[in-house]
Every structure is written in C-alpha cells, then in structure tokens.
Amino acid sequence: MSTAACQGSIGDTEPEVPPTEVPEEDFEPIVAGLRTLTPAQYAASVRAVLGLAMEDSAVTEFGQWPSSIAAARGGFSSTSIETYETLALSASRHMFDNAERRNAFVACDPSPTCSRAVLARVGRLAFRRALSDEELERYGILADTLGHDPEDPFQGLMYALSGLLQSPYFLYRVEVGAPDALREGRLAYTDLEMATRLAFLVWNQGPDDGLIAEAEAGRLHSEEDIRAQVSSMLDDERARLGLREFLADLLDASAIATLEKDPLVFPNFDEALAEAMHAQFLRTAENAVEEGYGQLFTTRVTYINALLAPFYGLDETAFGASLEELELDGDSARAGILTTPGYLALHAYLGKTSPALRGLFVRRRLLCRDIPPPPADVDTTLPEPPGGELVTTRQLVAIHLESDQCAVCHRLMDPIGLGLEEFDAIGMYRETENELDIDPSGELEGAPFRDAAELGEVIADHPELLPCLMANLYAYGAANTIATNNPALGPLLERMDGDDIGSAVLSLAMNEHFRYAFTGESP
Amino acid sequence: MSRKRRRSAGRGDLMSRRRLLRGATAAGAGVALGLPVLEAMMDLDGNAFADGSTCPKRFVLWFWGNGTVPNEWAPSATGRVWEPSSLLRGLDAVKEKVSIVSGTVLPTRGVNNPHVEGACGILTGGNPILAPEFTGSGGDWNFMTPPGASIDQRAAALLGETSFQSMVLGITTPHGSSGPGTAVRDVSHNGPYAPNPALLDPAAVFARFFGGGIPSPGLTDPTPDELARASVLDAVMEDAAALRTRISAQDRARMDQHLSSIRDMERRLRATTTGMLGVSCVETQAPTPVASFRERARVMNELVGLAFACDLTRVAVMQFSSPASHSGYPDVFPDGVQHNGAATSFHEYEHSNGFDATVRTGLQYLIDVFGDHVAALDATQEAGGTILDQSAVLGTSELSNGWQHRFDDFPLILAGSAGGALDAGQHIRMEGATSSRVPLTILRALGSEQTAWGTEQFETSDVVSGLLT
User: Fold this and answer.
1) Which of B109, B172, B258 is the best mutation test for A, with the most CBs of A within 10 A?
2) Which of A34, A251, A42 is nearest to B178 (CA)?
C-alpha cells in the first residue's frame, strides 16, 4: 500500500484530527476475509435469527474458538461440522415442535410462497444481507421437497431453516471488501459488511433488521455515518453486554468457568464456585464499561453471592445465589479485578500460586509488553528448599531471580505477581504461608507498591495501559495485531474520551484501519 | 419395536440395528434392551465375519502428555522375549499383543516450545505453524497449530465411511488456549486450526454416539430424515462453492477443509450400510458418573469397544492428558504431589524434582491406564478374534523426557496386529532412527500405499520393517 493511500478519509473529513501518516513498513492491515463466530456470538446469533429470547435454553453456545482473534483464524473440523448440524436441527425443530411458537414464527399457511417468505425474512438476518434470488430458490426447493411426514406440512421448511444455520454465510462473517477507487491497494468494507463488523463490535451479535436496512440505504459509509450509527448503537441496551464481552475476551474470562483445582487442597472448589467466580468477574468488567477502564483495577465495588461470601470474610447465610453489589472498605486487601477470586484462581496452579503467571498476564496482556519464552533447553528444576524447611513462595521464586538464565524474564513477571501473594490459588485471603508472614510488596517497571491495592493503582496509572487497551480492542474488533508503539495507534487514542471504553469503540469504528482492508496482494 | 426383514444368503432373518436402537430411544433413554446376540448378526449373508479378514481395521491413538524417561521406559531385552520394564508393567497382561519400538529420535527443530514441536512432529509429521497474529518474540502455544491432519484423521480417511469419522475422547482437562493455537489443547486435527476436541464426559460420549436420533449402522437404507439432512448439506455446499470464489487463498484453504468435512458427512448420511454387526455390538446403558480418572477411562474403553463392534466408527483417540498437561493424578496420589508444602501438577512436580519414586509412580500409572485400554479392546469379541486383533493402537507422547524436554528414545508403543498386518509381541530397538517410521508403518499396516510420511526434517520413507508382516 502507498503512504498516500492512508491519508485523509473519504466522505466528510474530521477537521480536528490530522490525516494519519503511516509508514508502510509499520503497519499492514489484515487481509479481508472470513471470521468464524465465538461460542457467545453463535448462540446470540441463532437466538436473534430465530427471534428467541436471550435466555432461551433451546439454543446452546458452541464453538472451538473462545476468543475473537482465534475465531478470525479458526476453522472447522469434522467434529465441529457434525455438532453444528446437530445444533442447527435442534434449534430448527424447536421452532416447529410447538403449534403456538410455530404459528408466530411462520405466520402463514403452508405453501411454497409462505416458505419463501419465511426463508427470506430469516435468511436476511442469518446471512446478514438479503438472500439472492438463487439462494432463496435453493432453500425454497428444500422446503418444497424435503417433507416426508404427511402429518407435518412444515417439515420441509424446518429442514431448509436448519440449512440456513449451517451455511458458511451464517457460520462465517464474510467481510471480503470491494475495491475502492479512492484507496489504491485497499479494499473498502461494503456497507453491509460494515453493518456486520459494527454489530459484532458493539453488540457481539449480528446486525438487526434496522441496521441491515441502514446499510442497504448506503448510510454506513462515511466517517460521519459511522459516528452517528455507532453512537446510537452504544445507547442500545445490547451495547453493555457487547462491550463487556470485549473485556471478557481481553481478560480470558471464559476460562474461569471451567477451572479445576486440586480437590485435596480446595475441597470446596467445584463447578458452582467456578461459575460464581466467572459471573462476578463479568459483573466487575461490566461495571468498568460504565465507570471507565482504569477503575477496573482499583474499584472497591464488587459482587458477592453465598458461594463468594467466605472469600470476603462475610457470612454466607446472609447471601443468596444471585450476586449482590457491595462496596468494600477502603482498607480491604482487595481492590480491582486482579483481586477477584476469578483472576487469582485462573493465574495459579492446581494447588499453589504462581507469581510468574499472575505477573505475566499483567505485563503481556494488560501492558502489551513482550516476554520471551523460556529457552527450549532450560533446566526448570526448582529445588526444594534446603533442609526440607517450608518457605514462602516469595523465597522459593527468589531462585528464579538469582539465576541469570531465569532472571532475564522472571524479573519482569515475578515482582508483579508477588503483590498478589496474600491470595492463594483460588483467591482466598491468607496472612501466612507455611506459617510464615507474607510480604505482598513488589514493583512494576520501577514503580514500587506495598500490596495488591497499590498494585492496582500502579496499573491504572501506567502510561501503557490505554495504548495496550486500544491495541487489544483493535485485535478484538479488526482481528489484527498492532504494536503499541505503532504510529497508527495515535489517532485512535486521540479520539478516546479519557478511559471510556465506549469512546474507544467509537474511535475504532470510525478509523480507516477498521473500515479498509488489505488486498492480500503484495504492495 | 419395528422390524425389517431381509433375505440373506444362508442364515435366517436379520434385525435392523438402526430400528432397534431407535426403538430403545422411544422407549426411554438409557434403558438397557439386552438385545439378543443372534447368530445371524455374527454371520451376515454367509460372508461377513465368517472369518476375521472381512472385519474392518481400526486405529486408536492413545496419548499422554509430558513423556516418560529415556533409558528407563524401554525393556532391556529385544525381540520376542521382551519383558515390560518397571515403567511398562501395565502391559504385563497384554504383552503378547504389544510391540515396543525404542531408541528412535523425533527430529524436532528446537526453536519453539518443545511440547508443541513434539506433538506436531509425532502426530502430524510436521513443524508447527505460528499464527501471524502473534507479535511477541519466540513462539506462544496459544498461537501455534499443527501444519496438517494428525495420524488418526489420516487413518479415518483410509478406513472408510462410517456414521462417525472418529471418536475423540479425553480424561483430564486440557490446557485452554486464549488464541487460535490448538497444538497443546488438542491432539486430533483435520488440518491447521481444525482440531477435534476431546469429549471428557462419558455421558456426553454416549449421547453423541449411541443416543437418540443418531443413527447406528444397520441393514437398512438411509432414513428419510438422513436423506433430507444430506440434501440440506448439498445446499450448504452450493453456498460454500459460491463463496469460495470470492475469498483469499488462505480462506480458500480453510473453506476447502470445511467443504471436505461437509462432503464426508453428506456421504455418510446417504450411505446404505451393509450390516456390519460384531458379536459385541449390544445395547448398553448410559454411563453413570465416576470420579476416578482410571474408572472413567474404563468406561470410555467400553464405549470405544462398542462403537468399533457396531462399526459406528473405525478410529478412536484417547487423549488421556494433553501435551504439557498440568493435571494431577489423584488416583495414585491421593494426597497430591507436593512441592514446598503445596499440591502441584505432575508436570510441575517433574520439573521441580526430576526422576524420583513419585515420578516413577505417575509414569507407571499412565501405562497402567493404557494397558486397561488395550485389554478392553482385546476383551471385545468379534468374529474371528478380538477387536484388538483388527486394530493398530499407538500409545505415545510429545516428549521422551518430560522435564528436560528431550526427544531421544521416544516412547512408541504399538498394540494389536491390524488384521494380521502387524507382527505384534516384540521389542524392536532402532538406535537413532527417526520416530517418523512408526506413523508410516501404521498407515501402511492399515492399508495405505503411501511410501513416505512427514515433511521437512520429519520426512521418511522407511518403515519399521520388522513390524510389518
């Protein structure tokens, strides 16, 4: 691509933001293409396509790619094809196995015309665009011919519907772009493709009928169009969970729900507790959608139910199964999402903590700092402490920091994670380890902290926090990676309003790197 | 119960398995019907199962994570007089039907994570692909995937059309992946970024392979439902073909993989099965939950034996633990394995302690559970012998030495004789030969005519000659 191609913008220009200068070697937009759906996107899309409520249990989450960046690359194996077929049939059958639901869904008497009306209406949502005549006929014929139960006049339509839910146009987001006269070497996402990109970015599901209509009317093209659309999409109630999903993706939240721990060390740790931790973690993230990203690391607001109460020294009998919002005292050991049991348990081993894992995530994911992997031939043996005496984890990992081979990386991780040592491998508070006092102090890139709460403040104040958030949002929304020192990130950050996540999403949506793709041919 | 009558060449009437299983579902899930084992089922049309040669061949990949110990795992004597080493004692009862190939080296590059390189190397014969989204230095297994199909899926392509391409099972929870990487999460792949994740819950396995609505192989033509579903897949494939013309080369490769899986499924739905019924193909009850890994593995073994006996599939994968697994083995360490006063994973323990009595116990345990699997297949009868006799079972891992990340004296255990193609019951030591010989040998034993296996430094055209009959 040429440098000139990256300057300015089409349609209305933004006077207060100068054109972006991006040296071509610095930035390579993604090759336009296909993205599969994450499990949450799949379930939300099936429900939306069929007009089912969000909590309808006839639809289950499925997918092999829990993160957005993985779903952009991931494919389908024989197992997943078989599973998608089973799920498509079961969702389709659900629409027809109850007369009331069926009549509301079909809303016409059985006939080829009726089938085509239903398929056109549903297909438009499933394919995120109107079906072509050829496509409508392809599925219409299925509806006409596949019924084999004389008692069931809609059986063929049921099969045809299951086909829409297995089509690659449903299971992939098709975002291939079209050549753009104003941008040599770039492809512009079409208005319909933009509707899909924006809907998944802001709502974590496909576009609704109204947004598709906007695209069909050509109102998703200019920067101003997109500003207006996204602003109103952010006001929609779907945005809160949609934006929460971005933070959940960034923070690997889905892994919490399936955590396993050593049953001997933690006899009370079970699936229900893991799910409670996951739910609390998501609520904490949701709060940051309202309150700002920095607050995610410092907030004293948390969410507690009976299972989580013991973690906070509270009487479990005072709580029920659902989460209640609670504000912790200012001198609580816990502040921010890093001190939630979910984070602490996720970044720990089966029975013991790992300052390295807890610190690695902060450095690599939250601050976008690189950490080299251990050398392939490294001797990772950590000897038992001499004399068989039990020590603290801090004393144990001191070995990492004394060995030249280990220290080069571990000094970047361990001093961060040691700040969370007052919490064990499921996130329960502890004052001692092996009957020795715990020292929760540490440092992050030279900034010292005394305990976990101060660690949260250091992270919230870190100059790389917002650039890294934007890089993560870019990876989430555009399925492409960008280094935090890339100049292309500058304009994206300038348009952010403080640490407001919605404003970051708006900034990304308007940015040309979100609206244009690379052709895939050598520049 | 519906019944379909059909004339056979010499024996009496045949029951439709398909209908019988359907009847079972309608009567209430999980109720054992106790189907009679009919002579007719064993000897269809006077030719199938009249001798073992017409039974299909099967393949099992039995995988455990984190390797073993070179110089400790292999038996000392070679040839037919071998005796299991201390670490292989779990094979005592089945040693006549097991062959050991020791001394080989898996030629990994040593530039990426060793668990990833080893798993990709032994299972797919290639080097891992690093997803371009990864921007850090070195490799990160959250972004690494194998370059092609794993040996089990290549075996499945070879072994013919059954209701299910393969049965991919697991016992311990694998590592998650925060990115598109699959190399340490899943051992079975149809291609890059196309993993077959292991099913960990026996009840889910039962529901999927034997539950209501999923057809069993029978003596009937496809049902109207199956034909309708196949027609739906035809329409889906037309969509895919239209889309294929508009996408990048990279996406085309992904779409081709997708299309090929749909095409396989469509063919399986339309296939008229010819009535493959092993004597052990009898209705069974849905499994009840069991806590112990070893007991759960035994339940899975039963389900694999049953699926093979009923010819629902010819390929199974048992991912006991994934590459680089961080599981504990509570069956043998009821108090957990401890380091500095806290329970830790076996993987971590090995890294911290090296080879000691605890590690020996853990490594013995893995082979004990593998031995259970081999014994279960050998206890599943079909005409002319046991399922094991018709199978090639490969037991392996991604490393030789787990905590030092080594690849010499790579653990390779073969069970079964693949319908007489493998000469079982011997220990063959091949000092320094490439481990790639073993996957090539297995595919040849299963009927492949391919003369080479692997790419780049894994490529070989040599088999383990003493193994092939």
Assistant:
1) B258
2) A251
CB B198 within 8 A of CB B174: yes
Burial label, B345 (beta-carbon count in 10 A; 0-12, 13-18, 19+):
buried
Nearest-by-Cβ selection for A265 from B180, B236, B342: B342
Q: Which residues of A touch B405 (CB under 8 A)?
A: 376-377
State the ipTM, two decimals. Answer: 0.88
Q: Do A73 and B166 touch (CB under 8 A)?
A: no
A contacts of B204 (beta carbons < 8 Å): none
In one letter, which amino acid is B461?
S
CA dist A117 and A108 (Å) reads 9
CB-neighbour burial class of residue B32 (10 A; exposed 0-12, middle 13-18, buried 19+): exposed
Phi, psi of A87 (to 5 degrees): -70, -40
Residue of chain A minimizing CA distance to B150: A77
> Where does B56-198 have alpha helices with state H?
114-124, 151-159
Which residue among B228, B232, B330 sits closest to A263, beta carbon to beta carbon? B330
Q: Identify the H or E element spanning B396.
A: strand B391-396
Q: Cα separation of B243 and A33, whole Å?
A: 11
pTM for the model: 0.84
Residues with pLDDT less than 50, chain B? 1-53, 213-215, 275
The total of other beta-carbon atoms located within 10 Å of residue B358's CB is 16
- Pick from B251, B250, B270, B274: nearest CA to B262: B270
Distance, in angstroms, between B377 CA and closest chain A CA? 23
pLDDT score, position A513: 87
pLDDT, tens only, A301-323? 999 999 999 999 999 999 999 99
